[in-house]
Write a structure and sequence with these properties.
Blueprint (H helix, E strand, L loop, with lengths): L2 H34 L2 H22 L2 H7 L5 H33 L4 H8 L1 H6 L3 H9 L4 H23 L5 H21 L10 H25 L1 H9 L2 H36 L3 H38 L6 H8 L2 H17 L3 H22 L4 H19 L1 H7 L3 H26 L5 H22 L3 H13 L1
Length: 477
C-alpha cells in the first residue's frame, strides 16, 4: 500500500502518543483523586456520567464518522455540522438544567442538582471540537489532537488535585472535567486554524444526517444500555458501591480503551480507503486483531493475578471491594477493542443500518442480564455485564464473517497464540511474587518478570507484532 501505509504508520504513532499519554495522565490523576476523595464522591459523578455521555452523543449525532467517511468533503459540510452541534448542545444543556431536580429525586441524592447544572456545561464546550477532530482524522493527522489532549489533561489534572487537597470534595472532580474540556477546545481552535463559513446547508445536513443518524441511534443505544448497569447500581445500591464499580472500570479502561481508541482512529480512515477491496480490508482486520491480542493478553492476565496488590498500593484499603470487580471486568479489556475492529468494517462500508441492528440485538441481552442479576448484588451484576460483552463480540463479528470470511472463530484462532504465551509469562511470575511480603515490590517485580518472560516467548515464537513494534521504535529513535 506504499504511501498509504507510511501515512497510516505516522498516524498510528501520533495516535498512540495521544491515547497512551492522555490515558496515563488521566489514570494517574484518577489515582491521586481516589486517595484524596471518597468512593461516594466518585459514585455521585458516576450517576450523572450517562446523562453527559448521551447528551454528547446527541451533539455528535454520528457526524464525526459521517464527515470522515464522506469522500468529497467541503467547508460548507464542516460549517453546517459545527452550527448544528452548538445549537443542539445549548438545547440539551437547557433540558438537563430544568430536569436536575427530578434526576436528584430519582437517585435520592440532593447534591446532584447543582452538580448536573455545572457539569452539563461540558456538553456545550465539547460541541465545538467534533468538526476539528473529523478534519484531522480524515487527513490521518493526529499530532494536533495529541497536543490538545495531553496539555488539557495535565492542566485539568492539576486543577482537580489542587481542589481535592483543599477539601472541595466531589467538586474537585467537576473542576477537573470542565477545565480539561475548556482548554482542549481552545487548543483545537488555536492549533487547527480553520474559519467556518456562516452557512447552514440543508442538502449537506440531510446527506450527512442520513448516514450519521443511524450511527447516532446506535451509539445512543450502546451508551444507554452499557451504562444501564451504572443507573441500576446507583438506584438500587449506595453511591459508595457505585464508586467501587467506577474505579474498577477505570483500571480496565486504560488498556482496553487505549487500544480500542487507537484502532478506531487509525484503522477506520484506512478501512475507508480499502473498503472496496475485500482482500485488503481483510488484511486490515487480521493485522488489527493480532496486534490487539499481542498487546492486551499479558495485560489482562497481569491484572487478573495482581489486582489485589495493585488496588491496595495505589488506592489504599478503603477501595478493597474494587479488587473482585476489577478481576471480573478484566475480560472486557479484550472485547472492547475487538468490537471496534468488527464495527469499523461496517462503518467504512457505509452500512450504518446493520450497525444499528447489531446494537439493538445486543441491548436486548443487556436488559435480560440486568433483570437476572440486579437482585443478587454488585458482583452478580458485574458478571452479567461481562457475559453481555462476550456475547457482543460474537454478534459484532457476524458481518465480517459474512462479507470477508473473517468471523468470530477465525478471530479467536488468531488470538489464541497470544493467550497461551501470556499465560506462560504471567502465571509463573505470580507464583514467584507471591512469596514477596512487600506489595509494592510485588507489583514492580511482577511487571518486570512478566515483561521479560512474555517478550522472550514472543521472540521464540516469532510473533510478527513484536518485530513490527521494534522496527517502528528503532525508526523513530
Amino acid at each position: 500500500m506504499g504511501a498509504l501505509e507510511n501515512q497510516t504508520k505516522k498516524g498510528l504513532v501520533w495516535s498512540s502518543i495521544d491515547k497512551f499519554s492522555t490515558l496515563i495522565i488521566q489514570f494517574s490523576v484518577g489515582i491521586v483523586l481516589a486517595r484524596l476523595l471518597s468512593p461516594e464522591d466518585f459514585g455521585l459523578i458516576g450517576m450523572i456520567t450517562i446523562l453527559i455521555s448521551i447528551s454528547q452523543c446527541l451533539v455528535d449525532s454520528g457526524f464525526y464518522t459521517a464527515l470522515v467517511q464522506k469522500k468529497n468533503i467541503t467547508n460548507v459540510d464542516y460549517s453546517t455540522i459545527l452550527f448544528f452541534n452548538i445549537v443542539v448542545a445549548f438545547l440539551l444543556y437547557f433540558i438537563l438544567y430544568l430536569t436536575a431536580d427530578y434526576i436528584a429525586v430519582f437517585y435520592q441524592e440532593p447534591l446532584l442538582i447543582d452538580l448536573i447544572k455545572v457539569v452539563s456545561l461540558n456538553i456545550i464546550i465539547l460541541s465545538t471540537t467534533v468538526v476539528h477532530k473529523a478534519m484531522l482524522s480524515k487527513k490521518i493527522d493526529f499530532r494536533i489532537q495529541a497536543i490538545a489532549h495531553i496539555i488539557s489533561s495535565v492542566v485539568g489534572g492539576i486543577i482537580g488535585i489542587y481542589a481535592a487537597f483543599n477539601d472541595h470534595g466531589v467538586w474537585a472532580l467537576v473542576y477537573h472535567t470542565l477545565s480539561r474540556g475548556i482548554l482542549a477546545s481552545l487548543l483545537y481552535w488555536f492549533l487547527n486554524r480553520w474559519t467556518p463559513s456562516i452557512v447552514f446547508s440543508k442538502a449537506s445536513f440531510k446527506a450527512l444526517f442520513s448516514f450519521g443518524s443511524k450511527l447516532m441511534l446506535s451509539e445512543l443505544l450502546k451508551i444507554f444500555f452499557r451504562n444501564l448497569f451504572i443507573i441500576i447500581i446507583g438506584k438500587v445500591y449506595k453511591a459508595e458501591e457505585l464508586g467501587y464499580y467506577t474505579r474498577a472500570s477505570l483500571f480496565k479502561q486504560v488498556p482496553g480503551t487505549l487500544v480500542g481508541n487507537i484502532l478506531q482512529s487509525v484503522t477506520f480512515p484506512l478501512m475507508v480507503k480499502v473498503i472496496d477491496n475485500n482482500e485488503k480490508a481483510k488484511h486490515v482486520l487480521v493485522r488489527s486483531t493480532k496486534l490487539t491480542g499481542f498487546v492486551l493478553f499479558p495485560v489482562i492476565l497481569w491484572l487478573l493475578f495482581f489486582a489485589k496488590p495493585l488496588i491496595l498500593v495505589l488506592l489504599t484499603q478503603k477501595w478493597l471491594p474494587t479488587v473482585l470487580l476489577l478481576q471480573i471486568l478484566c475480560l472486557d479489556i479484550l472485547f472492547h477493542p475487538m468490537q471496534y475492529i468488527n464495527l469499523n468494517y461496517l462503518n467504512a462500508k457505509g452500512r450504518s443500518d446493520l450497525f444499528l441492528k447489531l446494537e439493538m440485538l445486543k441491548n436486548i441481552f443487556t436488559v435480560i442480564a440486568i433483570l437476572i442479576t440486579y437482585k443478587f448484588g454488585l458482583v452478580a451484576m458485574t458478571v452479567g455485564y461481562i457475559s453481555v460483552s462476550c456475547l457482543s463480540f460474537f454478534i459484532n463479528s457476524y458481518y465480517t464473517g459474512t462479507y470477508v470470511k473473517y468471523g468470530a472463530l477465525k478471530q479467536l484462532a488468531d488470538l489464541s497464540p497470544y493467550a497461551i504465551a501470556a499465560s506462560f509469562a504471567v502465571i509463573p511470575s505470580f507464583f514467584i511474587c507471591f512469596f514477596i511480603p512487600s506489595m509494592p515490590v510485588q507489583l514492580v517485580t511482577g511487571v518486570a518478570l512478566c515483561a521479560i518472560f512474555y517478550i522472550s516467548i514472543a521472540y521464540t515464537m516469532k510473533f510478527q507484532e513484536l518485530f513490527e513494534i521494534k522496527r517502528i521504535i528503532l525508526n523513530k529513535i
